[in-house]
Amino acid sequence: MPEQFERGELERLRLHVLPTKRFKTFALSLFAGIPLSESRVTPTALTPFVLRRGTQSYPDTLQFRERLDNLYGAGFGFDLYKRGDHQVVNFRLDIINDRFVSSSESLLKEALKFLGEAVTAPALEDGKFRPKYVEAEKTTVSKRIDAIINDKIRYAGERCVEEMCRNEPFRLHALGRKDDLPGIDAGTLTEAYRSWLQDVSLDLYVAGDTSLSEVQEIVGGAFRLPQGSPAGYQEPALIPARDEVQTIVERLDVGQGKLNMGLRVGSSYGSDKYPALLVYNGLLGAFPHSKLFVNVREKASLAYYASSRLDGHKGIMTIQSGIEIANYEKAVGIIREQLAALERGEFTADDLAKTKAMMSNQIREIQDSAFERIGFDFSGVVAGKDRTGESFISELEAVTPEMVVEAAKDVKLDTIYFLRDRKGEG
Amino acid sequence: MEKMDYPKLQETVWHEKLENGLEVFVLPKSGFTKTYAAFTTRFGSVDNRFRPPGGDEMKVPDGIAHFLEHKMFEEPEGDVFSRFAAQGASANAFTSFDRTVYLFSATRQIPENLTTLLDFVQNPYFTDENVEKEKGIIIQEIDMYRDNPDWRVYFGLIEALYQDHPVHIDIAGTAKSVRSITKEMLYDCYNTFYHPSNMTLFVVGGVEPEPTFELIRQNQAGKSFPQGGDIRRTVAEEPPQVKDKKRDIRLPVSLPKCLFGFKEPQGTAQGEAGIRQELATKLALETILGPSSPLYQKLYDDNLISDNFGYEFNTGPGFAFSIIGGETANPEELMERVTAALYDTAAKGIDSDVFERTRRKRIGGFLRMLNSPESIANEFTRYRHRGGDLFRVVQYYESLTVDELNELLKSHVSPDRLAACIVRSAEA
């Protein structure tokens, strides 16, 4: 029986503590989410970059990093991503449990203090972020946005979603918009940061050899947040697919073509239909025994990778494959045929059993990683759907072939995106 | 069954060398749901000239170890992935310079999955037809990497550093070398390198040692193998000079990517001494180039580096080299300033406070890594093949001295063994 989260609240923070002795570390994870919007996306993206430059106690970046080194090389970092129609900043800190090292201080306490200060008590000058940090991090974010194109697999994936979601906030990138950066300075960013702290939904997770009461006691002094109670998350807007599939072809200097497809699936993580959709995605393209891998790669030898991914928080699915450019029509034909076959219910009981076995295994494996366990739990928080590993596995086991066919009928192709070379252009 | 206890780390590893020569390790992780198993052969991309036990020397096409890895998953009754899927396991494999690793992770049916792992790797099935079909897939894999600037700059640097040592050969080979591979060549490689005496099995996670060993013993006792023997690998003599001082590659990138590094002319020492050398060199580089070094901060402030700036120190049979760099607006200036700092520290020596802080950081990083069964299995096997012990890393670190680091640094950063590779966009 896996350990269970203990839950509490402390002013604006929701606390989730997983007491466990299995790990050599304390894993800390803070999720901070707000609705995606044009006006806030860029300052929100820039904020964690500036926060990681220094705090009140460690205002210089070198002091900040030396402090982490002295905490036995605590791993501090952050990620920016979209969860449904929200932009989430996820701060993480991974630190050794004191019992493995000869430390005189409580490392959990020091880690929580550090994280709390990094997020809520940054280094300031005249009540504003240090202009030097803001300017440097604007450059960094701008370079990150530019660098997306370097990895063609990622670039093609993001372009496809951007084209499909052209008329909704989801088209925005979690890193924000490059064009907004020049208009931001230390003053405007500090204002944006303060209002972000007012509105943001905050979930703090701790996994390790501790308890809710211990964490609660430390957190009280570690986070300096505005008054209030925890904010929640909203359900994503479920948009129907275009009446006619749009095809976008983009040309760059590439050798291999990247074929991507965007599909609408009609429901999201919180829905009772979600388990059937996930099984559908498993049959289609999540595993080496799935239809895409078997037919595009193994039978036709067209690609090295061919897979599908379900974004349950947004209610969309994507398909991705890298192919020889001349094989475009052939690959599109084979992929569309797999979608049609699933709609006709053409899969065996054996395929279904394998898919369920693989998915159940993935969910059970999550239990062995502190950060994955935390990520799974947070999905439930965002969607307002309480799922444990066991309950989710039971939901998947209960999916029948008929339910998969029902789910398949809701899946609609919206966008085909092809990244190809410049030969024969114009 | 031999018990290896590491009380400070709260880990216990069980070990046995089977009659056929297979080395087996089991590490039970109490409370873990998942089991991860890695079945490793000492056969990688550098093993391109060898003499099998009792045979004549052969030279095999580039990329054959990786090709063999792909083809192992095919069995007369179909694809092995499908069998693993039916048993709820996710399986995979990878090929590196000196190893090929087959692995699975699962939370149920561990005996069945272990049996499948042992059986499929010990049952080659290559036909003219299935070998031919794989070529299209692997050529797409090669094309995918050709469009990836990070891979290109990384391998471009190794090609610039090495003249003769096969570490400079791309692990997947080229479209041409892949097309020349035949089923006979695959069998030759298989028969040479997949003998149990050249292999290691590591099982970690929610398992009991004794029943696990018993299953593996029984499985191996039911199979017959020819007498194992010494595989003679012909390692090319690598001259001390680099092949090219600088390589330029054109690919569309947002900013140039620049990597540079030094090669150790003789590779690293064998056994524990080599492991210490590797850890010490990495520690020395971290003190100068890590994110909490003054140099890193200055380069960042001067807009010469991004968060992806970093370094590596890679070692294996007959090779050892550092790789330093990342994306930068000005490759020449970056290289100039970083190498100047390296030469300067090599001349003056590393500060002992910085040494202590950085050592503490690396010990913490090592302990955090032990949360991951995958990392334990892969790193343990890598250390073992080189005659070291992963679970003694903390002791290795604790026994290092700043003088030792200074000596190593001085001999490593030699200007005549420096090469660079730069990927930039074509001029408009």
Automatic annotation (TrEMBL), chain A:
Single GO MF annotation: metal ion binding
Gene3D superfamilies linked to this entry: Metalloenzyme, LuxS/M16 peptidase-like
Annotated Peptidase M16 C-terminal domain residues: 185-358
One Pfam entry name: Peptidase_M16_C
InterPro entries from the UniProt entry: Metalloenz_LuxS/M16, MPP/UQCRC_Complex, Peptidase_M16_C
PANTHER family per UniProt: INACTIVE METALLOPROTEASE YMFF-RELATED, METALLOPROTEASE
Name assigned to this protein: Insulinase family protein
Protein source organism: Cohnella pontilimi
Top-level taxonomy: Bacteria, Bacillati, Bacillota, Bacilli, Bacillales
From TrEMBL, chain B:
Record SUPFAM superfamilies: LuxS/MPP-like metallohydrolase
One function term, GO molecular function aspect: metal ion binding
InterPro entries assigned to the protein according to its UniProt record, in alphabetical order: Metalloenz_LuxS/M16 (IPR011249), MPP/UQCRC_Complex (IPR050361), Pept_M16_N (IPR011765), Peptidase_M16_C (IPR007863)
Domain Peptidase M16 C-terminal: 180-360
One Pfam assignment: Peptidase_M16
Annotated ranges, domain Peptidase M16 N-terminal: 62-174
Protein name: Insulinase family protein
Species this chain originates from: Cohnella pontilimi
